[in-house]
Automatic annotation (TrEMBL):
Residues 19-128 form the DUF306 domain. It comes from hydrocarbon metagenome. It holds the Pfam family META. PANTHER family: DUF306 DOMAIN-CONTAINING PROTEIN, HEAT SHOCK PROTEIN HSLJ. Coiled coil: none annotated. InterPro entries: DUF306_Meta_HslJ, HslJ-like_sf, Hsp_HslJ-like. This is DUF306 domain-containing protein. The lineage of its organism: unclassified sequences, metagenomes, ecological metagenomes.
Length: 136
């Protein structure tokens, strides 16, 4: 007799996978503010979802928005963006205008450790998101 049998369940560590670019609800953590990225104020919730049919939808600082995008490899370009027409404070309306402007400047993306970074043609980070459910 060799003793009590032991069953090994798993010796492999679970490595979290990065979220997929498409069909994921991305929540904005930081956006360009001059030459650097600045975190969004507490209580702000700006979202982006890229759907498999080449359209986007999300929530800006004030309005819901929608539009189109093209994707080839790591290259990502947003087309026309439409939005609802709700009014907000001048600060929020300015932030929303800058957000939409930054989306139009996006030319590529990277996803690392659950963080989506959208960059311009020179590789400058414009917008930083986390996948819904991931730590901020």
């Amino acid at each position: 007799m060799w003793g009590t049998p032991v069953r090994v369940i798993s010796l492999v560590a679970q490595v979290p996978q990065d979220a997929a670019l498409q069909q994921t609800l991305w929540v904005l953590d930081a956006m360009r503010d001059g030459p650097s990225l600045a975190p969004l104020p507490a209580g702000s919730r700006v979202t982006l979802t890229l759907l498999a049919d080449g359209t986007i939808q999300g929530r800006g600082p004030v309005n819901n928005y929608f539009g189109e995008y093209t994707l080839e490899g790591q290259e990502l370009v947003f087309g026309m963006i439409g939005a609802t027409e709700m009014a907000g404070s001048p600060v929020l309306m300015d932030r929303e205008a800058r957000y939409f402007s930054d989306l139009h400047e996006v030319r590529s993306y990277a996803i690392r450790e659950g963080v989506l970074t959208l960059t311009d043609s020179e590789g400058t980070s414009l917008l930083l998101y986390h996948a819904e459910g991931s730590p901020a």
